[in-house]
Amino acid sequence: MVSHADDMLAVTIAGIKMKTPVMTASGTFGFGLEYSDFVDLNKVGAIVVKGTTLAPKVGNSGRRMAETPAGMLNSIGLENPGVEELISKTLPLLAQYQVPVIVNISGNTVEEYGELAARLDKTGAQGLEVNISCPNVKQGGIAFGTCPDSAAQVVREVKNMTKLPVIVKLSPNVTDVVLMAKAVESAGADAISLINTLLGMAIDIKSWKPVLGNIVGGFSGPAVKPVAVRMVWQVAKAVKVPVIGMGGIMTANDAVEFMLAGASAVAVGTANFVNPYVSVEIAEGIKDYLAEHGLKQVRELVGKVNCS
Amino acid sequence: MVSHADDMLAVTIAGIKMKTPVMTASGTFGFGLEYSDFVDLNKVGAIVVKGTTLAPKVGNSGRRMAETPAGMLNSIGLENPGVEELISKTLPLLAQYQVPVIVNISGNTVEEYGELAARLDKTGAQGLEVNISCPNVKQGGIAFGTCPDSAAQVVREVKNMTKLPVIVKLSPNVTDVVLMAKAVESAGADAISLINTLLGMAIDIKSWKPVLGNIVGGFSGPAVKPVAVRMVWQVAKAVKVPVIGMGGIMTANDAVEFMLAGASAVAVGTANFVNPYVSVEIAEGIKDYLAEHGLKQVRELVGKVNCS
Amino acid sequence: MEAKEAVAKTCVKSRIINQSAITYDVFVMVVAAPEIAAIARPGQFVHIRLTDALEPLLRRPFSIADCDSSEGTLTLIYRVVGRGTALMSGLKSGHTLDCMGPLGNGFTLSGQRPLLVGGGMGLAPLLMLAKTFCSCSSTLLMGGRNAQELFWPNIYRDVCNNIYITSDDGSLGHRGFTVDLLPGLLQEKKFDVVYACGPHVMLKSVAEVAQKYHIPCQVSLEEYMACGVGACLSCTCAGTSGKRNKVCTDGPVFWTEEVVW
Amino acid sequence: MEAKEAVAKTCVKSRIINQSAITYDVFVMVVAAPEIAAIARPGQFVHIRLTDALEPLLRRPFSIADCDSSEGTLTLIYRVVGRGTALMSGLKSGHTLDCMGPLGNGFTLSGQRPLLVGGGMGLAPLLMLAKTFCSCSSTLLMGGRNAQELFWPNIYRDVCNNIYITSDDGSLGHRGFTVDLLPGLLQEKKFDVVYACGPHVMLKSVAEVAQKYHIPCQVSLEEYMACGVGACLSCTCAGTSGKRNKVCTDGPVFWTEEVVW
Ligand SMILES: Cc1cc2nc3c(=O)[nH]c(=O)nc-3n(C[C@H](O)[C@H](O)[C@H](O)COP(=O)(O)OP(=O)(O)OC[C@H]3O[C@@H](n4cnc5c(N)ncnc54)[C@H](O)[C@@H]3O)c2cc1C
Ligand SMILES: Cc1cc2nc3c(=O)[nH]c(=O)nc-3n(C[C@H](O)[C@H](O)[C@H](O)COP(=O)(O)OP(=O)(O)OC[C@H]3O[C@@H](n4cnc5c(N)ncnc54)[C@H](O)[C@@H]3O)c2cc1C
Ligand SMILES: Cc1cc2nc3c(=O)[nH]c(=O)nc-3n(C[C@H](O)[C@H](O)[C@H](O)COP(=O)(O)O)c2cc1C
Ligand SMILES: Cc1cc2nc3c(=O)[nH]c(=O)nc-3n(C[C@H](O)[C@H](O)[C@H](O)COP(=O)(O)O)c2cc1C
Ligand code: FES
Ligand code: FES
Hints:
The complex is a heterotetramer, with 2 copies of chain A and 2 copies of chain C.
Chain A: H1 4-9, E1 11-13, E2 16-18, E3 22-24, E4 46-52, E5 65-68, E6 71-74, H2 83-94, E7 101-105, H3 110-119, E8 127-131, H4 142-146, H5 148-161, E9 166-169, H6 177-186, E10 191-194, E11 198-201, E12 203-204, E13 209-210, E14 216-220, H7 225-238, E15 243-246, H8 252-261, E16 265-268, H9 271-274, H10 278-292
Helix pairs in contact in A: 3-5, 5-6, 6-7, 7-8, 8-10
Chain C: E1 10-21, E2 26-32, H1 34-37, E3 45-49, E4 60-63, E5 66-68, E6 73-79, H2 83-89, E7 96-103, E8 114-119, H3 123-133, E9 139-144, H4 152-156, E10 162-167, E11 174-175, H5 178-188, E12 193-197, H6 200-212, E13 217-220, E14 236-238, E15 244-246, E16 253-255
Parallel strand pairs in C: 8-9, 8-12, 9-10, 10-11, 12-13
Antiparallel strand pairs in C: 1-2, 1-7, 2-6, 3-4, 3-7, 5-6, 13-16, 14-15
Helix pairs in contact in C: 5-6
Bound molecules: flavin-adenine dinucleotide (2 copies), flavin mononucleotide (FMN) (2 copies) and FE2/S2 (inorganic) cluster (FES) (2 copies).
């Protein structure tokens, strides 16, 4: 039964109905099932599964994660079992939950993105998140994420191949994130999510080697929040499609900050590792915030930052 | 008297001789004099003074600083007394110390940069740091810092107008920092410093207003270190001129990390606010590190990260 | 050159001697910082590093509410408003903080018959000032939201002879603001200087009234601070000289004429 | 649906019951975590959040070295190697940690006559394993750098009947590595399973020798972990099946045949 209080939190992003605006960020919540001992998956806004590629991928070798001040680096390199296993094994398991599942896809070429979209069209997935911003793979990631034309091409191809809502995930490693946002919006993106990880590096001063096997890695966690809030604010002002905000969200207050900046929904990533209950706790915290402020709907927050 | 141990730390950057590779970052150490109760300025590698403009500037209004997880935002907006007061009052005061003084300059136009360089040519300043990366002013900052051609133009103009060594300070808010580095190197930069602050934002969830009066601000401190190390590594590999590394340095270990990444010298910024003694303590810590590792010269660290 | 003068500003590892709660969110902390206590003047402040960890990163400024140079201790009175003060309030005696100070310019002790006007936590720095003036029986006008917030009369009982109290809701003393009583006081009594500390709106109206009665007035301002020593320019505010005032080093205490209100 | 089964994995606020130093950098900590103690098996681990602050941010994994389900306590034995363990070693009894667990797959208790081989801190998880086998008198082969590091014999004295010791410098027991004694032991005694935990190089050579003598062997691996529950893929390593193994959920204990060495 959906109570009145839950209604307060309900949002619809690009046609995807969510009970709460708190999603889980790709790559940080596995396929959801890994966290089912801690979180009632039915209480999560949406599960965005690990970045998926056509063929299975083993990812990068060597050490893959490092802690940094109030943040972390990862260089997983899109390890995943490939889209076929996702479709045949994982999506059916997720179908038992009443939670929208969004598949994060990554290709090496425009055609691969299209192929992924086509295959996922009628599989139970309720949306696609097009990852054009993975810093951890040579191709198929950052190249599309830093060039407005390539990004638009990917989005058009994906839109052609699927009827699913298409969220495009932007990289923060660009001079002008608004340019990228407008390019993918024009190309048909139904929503925009940001930020993916910043590109970072750490060096071990004992061994004189990079800490990560892949030398550089994706930088996430509370440390990056100021950059993420800024970019969400810039993009939300510039586009009409809904924005999903993420980057360093640890608490309900952080989520509210992103929503005031213009995010219609948020995603929690690194925070899951620190507190496995966080996605549900944040939703409850937002509800409390709304109540304290006499608001009836979470969407009353969206973009309400007063910059005058 | 210069002892042997001090020799270990001596570096020369673009002809500027420093007793230690630990400089103070512009805007975080005032004109040096403010910290003279804590730090023997003669023990600092070099003092980079606050960003200086032709005319005095009052800077931005409203709140100018905010703390973030392991970092801070500032929106000072280049408040400074103008180059004439610097030349007539401050540089003479600094002349009593045996420490190189580098003037960080910011202009609204290419000509202003040139004019600043010309005026500072014979004033006791031992070098210029050309700030083409201030995120806190509308003009004269970020525009030059994100376009390789404009950056090169500024550098050429400055080089034409002065015989002083010219350090060019790069912004991290770009897609391709190596492109910028190569552009300013080709234009004649004698050294490159990075990173300036990332562009960040914070929103007050009580008032629904941006925390900073200027809405967005420059993001610095330990939180940004992974981005800074990555960019220093990328740039140092790509250019022949020396690189001055900064961004989140709090300890001698952090400084060593930047030097392994390719920095010939480092600058400490935000850390001064936390520990006013930090610039000298870091130099001493580097000396200890060298001794422990059986190294004779700090330059033996530079760029020695082993990525094979 | 050998005999070195006492360094004006320093950072000292300061043991917490005592900490106690006055209300659920206001605490009194006594720390050992002999180097600072030896030279601190009323109106100056200390900038405190609460932890060696990187979060919270920055120091926090607190007025020196009292100072015992023979014991080498400083007293701080503070309200828990955020992460740093929450952390601070949880620290136990014996724990060590890093105190930087004494910072800023204190009050100018020029007057013979001073009136002190304090609102909220602005009463903290006035305490040391009042103690300095003790012999000449200073007068204190204090304001707060309600009786619960006005624990200050207890603190000042033995320090000020004359205490006037206002509260927003009338639950203690006069109902209204400090500035309501100010004209009356300035008219009757022969005060030759006003010292004020409290919320910005209060300071502004105190300054106006003092100016009207031609009584010199100093105010202690508050601003967000990073360095505390005049280096970062986080804390500057418009000054009447045309230059910006640094609250941390030009202030926190200013003559009202110096401030653009 | 009403009577809910004990949840396999959980996060519990765990009071530190006791903490003591064994050497200058190795500590034994006992925490109250009844929910975890009730179901923990040898070889499993807990993932600990040390502070509510944002730094250090991530949890730290520690093997369950002992577990008292009736008392509801877990024992951890850990070495201070960095920021998190340094912080941990400074915590006093009564302080509360956040323990997530029990995580991972423990040892398969299939053997009747097990040989335990441990190096360095790898001896921590073997302790609970040895206690489980106590009745059938397990044998332990332990190695360390020097006598100073080999405080373990004291810990294991009442747990294992037969203890063989090696040290790199010969300051205690046989001079050399555990693997030096392994062929002799596997030849003579009739061990039907080997359980090993320690540095990767040691595990590799133990696996080789065990394989040579056709004795099934399990090893407990260590990897850098973010989530601890199989979600982030930080900790995976190449597996012989062609798929990558997640050390946190497929392991940390693996049959040697599963591991690409
Ligand atoms: C010169 C001076 C003297 C002060 N004396 C006292 C005193 O005696 N007693 C007392 O209770 N408070 C005093 N304050 C205010 C006190 O510094 C803040 O309440 C405190 O810094 C809040 O820290 P926080 O981490 O709890 O809050 P947060 O909001 O978490 O702090 C975030 C950042 O904002 C800064 N900040 C927050 N509030 C203020 C504020 N009001 N003024 C300046 N910076 C702020 C913090 O220092 C920190 O950098 C004084 C401030 C100044 C400038
Ligand atoms: C399953 C498992 C069980 C373990 N059991 C024990 C034990 O019983 N006793 C013990 O002393 N140690 C054990 N370790 C190692 C222990 O987790 C690390 O020593 C500890 O995390 C170091 O934290 P730090 O903050 O002091 O070091 P830092 O170097 O500051 O830590 C930085 C990051 O690296 C990670 N890290 C550092 N060293 C290791 C390591 N060796 N293995 C995995 N992650 C590491 C930390 O968790 C953290 O994320 C175990 C590791 C794993 C994976
Ligand atoms: C371990 C890890 C793996 C990630 N994998 C992916 C991925 O496969 N696809 C993707 O689009 N983003 C991936 N991300 C990025 C996150 O989805 C998110 O954008 C980023 O971490 C910022 O949010 P956070 O600060 O809350 O973690 C990954 C992040 C982490 C930490
Ligand atoms: C308060 C403040 C003021 C700054 N002002 C300037 C400036 O005037 N010119 C400039 O080039 N950089 C300025 N910077 C950037 C620093 O010099 C430095 O590049 C940056 O802070 C990163 O280093 P950090 O993380 O050690 O602080 C300023 C930084 C801070 C925090
Ligand atoms: S706080 Fe830095 S100038 Fe005042
Ligand atoms: S630690 Fe995240 S998958 Fe193993």
